[in-house]
Amino acid sequence: MAQKFPRLFLYLLGALFLLNLVQSIFTELIYDEAYYWYYAQNLNWGYFDHPPMVALLIRLSSFLFEGELGVRLMSCILGVGTIAILWVLIDHKKKKEYIIHFFLLLFAMPLLNVYGFLTLPDTPLLFFTALFLLAYKRFLSESSLVNILFLGLTMAALMYSKYHAVLVIFFVLLSNLKLLKNKYAWFAVLISLLAYLPHFAWLYENDFVTIKYHLFERPNQPYSFEGFTLGYILNLILNFGLLFPFAYWALFKKKDNGYFDKALRFLSYGIIVFFLISSFQRRTQTQWVIVICIPMALLAYEYLLHNTKSRQWMYRLGLVSFVLLLIGRIGLAYEPLFPVIYETHGNKEWVSKIRSEVGDMPIVFENSYRRSPMYQFYSGGITTFSLNNVHYRQNQYTIDDSEAKVQGKKIAYVSLYLNKGDFEYKDIKGGEFKGVFIENFESFRKLRCFAESELIKISDKDMTLKIYNPYEVDIPLEKLQIKVGYLNFYKQLKETLGVTYSPVNKLTTSLKSKDTTSFKYNLPNTEIEDFKYLKFSISENGLQSGINSQTYKVER
Fold first, then answer.
1. 12: Cβ–Cβ under 8 A, 6 or more apart, which residues?
2. Global confidence as pTM
3. Each residue of 295-304: pLDDT tens digit?
4. I need a surface site. Which of 100, 102, 135, 463 has the fewest CB within 10 A?
5. Is it true that domain 448-555 has CATH number 2.60.40?
6. Apex CA 333: angle with CA 327 and CA 337, to 5°?
């Protein structure tokens, strides 16, 4: 242990672990963490937005602690684990002389820093990317059974963390195409696929809903250089903070010294170029490229070891970054020190405000898969549901059984869309929400509409629409209204109008349980001229209409 991890390294690593534990306890959850905490209440092999690793980490954390630390403990462990693996991956004989430099380099990377305690899919992605590189390095030195198994299981763990992991595996493979002829590499791939079969099965059972959403259903917006490509370039800078010039210069100057070094370069350049190209099509998020922090941290530290002048400047800027990020981290928990109002501020306050109005009553949040789990977490487990309408997006509440838990009950309905209500509150950013009490709540968001073909011709008359009722009860047609939403080229909803429809069987008065009912319909006229797609939507009991079909392309 002393040979691999000097005493100073262990002291600094322990101090960072303690800092992350304290930070976890005193910092409120961000909305995404609350959403993934909601995942973890029902462990499964997959979820609407992501593979299941993040939910598993939260469940493991909750076995030992409650509250915020019960969400973040495993992230704290993986955070220091990532740093330890990076240290092991560095072979340079002078590394023990510059341990403080190593920690300052890593601490200067803002997202790598906060993902050392926040529980998000990128947290295990970073850890298993580092572990995958370690497994690959060992595999290159010896194709033993242990190393093959290590490599295969690590690839599976990567893919269980986040779908972006496929890019990590692909670019490492691209750096060494000889692997395509290596039978031991194929054994590792086979092990990985076998370990990933449960998630493949989950995707199949759920009609590949995750893949369909990410690839085909997500709305976009018109391209702008400032918002898309320039924003992406700024994200590349943000990932490395004040040390970004040294990080990218180290990548540029790196010369290959074997297949492992080549893998670090290919992985870094591959991710950068891939999302640069993507930035010409859609807005990229800062964390999408965070995985480059792993290979580029290794390259930057190696560069630091070889260049005295750069090492001095990196040390000075690293100290400045340490102070700034430490203040920022304190500000995450203590609002007055943070430059802006952030998600970790005021959540307990707005939850307490609503709780004082509704008591233990279940709550339905309209169009908020973020507020719904946040309220459930800080209210001590009160039943919540996110009712998604056609103006919003699908999420985990679309596919799980949460709707059934509020059916037929007296609930509080909270929305931004209500003009008046029985109670109201403002969140910390000034959003004005109103709530009404509903005695016998009833929604049917799982009804599914199917057109005759993937292409809908506007000129056609008396087209057929099929509606499948997955519920255990028949649903009277008088409770329903079918609508159609018109979407532009970027799949942004522009208008929703009621549809003229009638059942093919004139005697039909309800949607039969577990059955499909056919209707004839005509599309309403719209003044929207630039629509390219449409989707069908059903309003039940006067509620805002839901998301009840896929997006269909239109032919005029």
1. 99, 100, 103
2. 0.94
3. 999 999 999 9
4. 100
5. yes
6. 45
